[in-house]
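Quick one - inputs below.
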Amino acid sequence: MAKAVITNQIRRLRFEHAEMTQQELAGRVACTRQTIIMLEQGRYVPSLLLAMRIARVFDRRVEDVFQLEEGAR
Amino acid sequence: MPIVLWTVAAVLVAAAGVSLAMRVGVKREPPPPLPPGERMPFTALQRLAAWSLLLGGLPAVAAGALLVHFGAMRFWDDDRVRHPVTALLVASLVAFAAFAFRMHALAARDDGSVDERDRAILGRASTAQSVATLLTLAVWVVALTHTYHATHLVPSVNLYLLFWSCLIANIAALPVGILLGYPRG
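Output:
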């Protein structure tokens, strides 16, 4: 099976929401700023719970924030 | 080679094994770009692990240095050496244990200071503990067999040091495993 990766739009959405800081987002979804940084760099895949919390902060659906990319190298 | 040096070698081999075990299969990636002058912020769990390694490791290193300096038999026969070394080993154990309890208590909180990623790293770090203990035991077995094969008599001081080295290696591997776990993502 081709390798799949999860990408996300968190960085863009933060800036669209009054340039929300990483620390502010971390506080609103009860995680650390380091986790937000790792998410934005695509180095960490969140749990469904955290993904839904992040989507709720931006008032979007989970699939608008996170995308599954099949066949990535 | 004196048995004390074997003990030090055991700890070093255990540390190398833990490091290797935590890094196997890890795809090395460049550090995430951050604004100039800004460093990746430490998490609360990372800070605790670093303090644990510092405050628990210092007495253990001091005890090891005294053992290397005086030798195992002098340690065993002379109360003026054995008591301070034992006190340092107990101090190290207490410091590591206190931090281990603190880290698990922190992980149980739900205030955002520790999140799912921290908990996953803490869970994976226990792998390092078993690796460290097994490697320390393996080095001891090789060392004792090599040193006392001809006489078939192993001085009891070695059992004492074996126990302590395994105990310290096991509990010290928790903060080491945590600190090595963060770059994995």
